[in-house]
What we know:
6 strands, Uracil-DNA Glycosylase, subunit E, 8 helices, six-stranded mixed beta sheet, alpha/beta
Amino acid sequence: MTSQAQTALNLLAEEVVGCERCPRLLAWREQVSRERRAAFAQQEYWGRPLPGFGDPLARLLLLGLAPAAHGANRTGRMFTGDRSGDFLFAALSRAGLANQPISRDRVDGLRLKDVWVTAVVRCAPPANKPTPLERDTCLPWSVRELGLLTEVRVVVCLGAFAWDGALRLRAALAGSDAPLPRPRPRFGHGVEVGDGAYRLIGCFHPSQQNTFTGKLTEAMIDEVLRRAQEIAANSA
């Protein structure tokens, strides 16, 4: 089962990487790859859309906003190579969901257990702000991805944009005519919503703006991951 799931996810990843549906994002990710940050001037940037990665039998899905221009857009792996990823993968390691707390590049030996990491938008956006059209254009990739991750029971939404994306994803999985819930559940750290196949949990995004100011602490993200594991275990 694992090999079949991984094969299907690999095929999807190839499609994602070749996506050119959003002209603004295509132009930006390629511009960033040419005009590299000085610290990474000698490195070759990925500069393409990013597929998710992790355990194909994961019960937890971590949903972010989009690849960082000089992080995942450089390294070619979600949340890899920037401060947000450093904070996130250290937390996953403490929770027993990653074999190491470090994320530097695609071949650094990082392996995830029972968790899949992805994002609402698959390309680095200017100013880290995708448009609503770009968000919606990327949604079918997430629908197909989650359809292949048949064991997922909990979606941890890293920030308000991911929360909104997860609500749209749940509606899309329910059917083309399924509306978003009304009133729409408001994002908040530790907020939970949903029943049935997937439960959503809100978590402040592990950006430097949040982690350096104490808005998101190690204890806070550890508690969210603990709660997500608890729900997943009870949903088996």
